[in-house]
Design brief:
GO terms for molecular function: DNA binding; DNA-binding transcription factor activity. Belongs to the LysR transcriptional regulatory family. Keywords: DNA-binding, Transcription, Transcription regulation. There is one protein chain. The protein is an alpha/beta fold and about 300 residues long. The protein has 3 domains: about 80 residues, Orthogonal Bundle (Arc Repressor Mutant, subunit A); about 100 residues, D-Maltodextrin-Binding Protein, domain 2, CATH 3.40.190.10; about 100 residues, Periplasmic binding protein-like II (D-Maltodextrin-Binding Protein, domain 2). About 40% of the residues lie in helices and about 20% in strands. It has a 5-stranded mixed beta sheet, sandwiched between helices. A 5-stranded mixed beta sheet has the order 8-11-7-10-9. Helix 5 links the parallel strand 3 and strand 4. Helix 1 packs across helix 3, helix 1 crosses helix 4 and helix 5 crosses helix 10.
């Protein structure tokens, strides 16, 4: 049974004539008659009564007509969805997310939804190594990452740089500065996530402290944002570092956010090698749209 046979059946049923159906389908009448006869043989029931001068649909044909229309509608829907997937405007886009994206992620998703309303996005948060492995293995289509080296087997497409912010007690004298350097805060204990949890930020901060000629002084570990900032506000003087985009997420009194002068990590999109898929290209466009004029980027 072919879709063409079903289309011919619906045309004859609606036109109540083989000649008119052939004209509507832009084929010759014998082709329509032949396909209808084949369909009747395959179904094992007569679809039209040809015993009179006029074609009349049989009771079996009447019963099958709505079902065949539904089949044709489903086939057309499959074609539309497949075309949408091929263009990136439909389907599912699986994205690995990174810590500290903050409002930037919301902006990207808003722009992506505006560009491709039917494209469904699934977000997956995981440590860096797991995100990269998921992209390599095909479980993710792309992942936001911040890396210091390379990512074997993947392409890293630069998106934007992200300033760092020092968070310290609001009552500390250093909070009186609008901008701080690593050298100014290196003497205080720093709260960092374990290296295996956030290797990029851990290595970035410890390397910057070491560059001042000091050994890093580690305070209590960074556990989660809410608890760490609450402890930092209430306890002895310590500090931590956040990506600037993450600072508005958890307003905590008695702490100060101060821009850190120094390295600004690059955010990349990790993707499989080769040309990006249409959906990933839409994601890249959405990311580019979030970069303000004058904001540092890969270029």
């Amino acid at each position: 049974m072919e879709l063409r046979q079903l289309e011919y059946f619906v045309a004859v049923a609606e036109e109540l004539g083989f000649a008119r159906a052939a004209e509507r389908l832009h084929v010759v009448q014998p082709a329509v008659s032949k396909q209808i006869a084949r369909l009747e043989r395959e179904l094992g029931v007569p679809l039209f009564d040809r015993s009179t001068r006029h074609v009349r649909i049989t009771s079996a044909g009447e019963r099958l007509l709505p079902e065949i229309r539904a089949v044709l509608a489903a086939a057309a829907r499959v074609d539309r969805i497949a075309a949408g997937i091929a263009s990136g405007a439909d389907g599912v886009l699986r994205i690995g997310t990174s810590q500290g994206l903050g409002d930037r992620l919301d902006q990207v998703l808003d722009r992506l939804a505006a560009a491709a309303p039917r494209l469904r996005v699934r977000l997956s948060g995981a440590p860096l190594a797991e995100r990269l492995a998921a992209v390599r293995g095909g479980a993710l289509d792309a992942a936001f990452v911040r890396v210091l080296g390379d990512a074997p087997g993947l392409e890293l497409l630069p998106l934007w740089t992200e300033p760092l912010v020092v968070v310290l007690p609001a009552a500390h004298p250093l909070a009186g500065h609008a901008t701080l350097t690593i050298d100014q805060v290196a003497g205080l204990p720093v709260r960092l996530s374990a290296r295996e949890v956030n290797p990029v930020l851990h290595e970035l901060v410890t390397a910057a402290i070491a560059a001042t000629g000091r050994e890093p002084r580690f305070g209590p570990p960074f556990t989660n944002l809410q608890d760490t900032l609450a402890e930092l506000a209430a306890g002895p003087a310590t500090w931590t570092v956040l990506y600037e985009a993450a600072t508005p997420q958890v307003p905590v009194g008695r702490v100060a956010y101060r821009r850190l002068a120094g390295p600004e990590p690059m955010t990349y999109l990790a993707v499989p090698p080769g040309p990006p898929s249409p959906a990933v290209r839409l994601l890249l466009d959405a990311c580019a749209d979030t970069v303000s004029p004058g904001e540092p980027t890969a270029s």
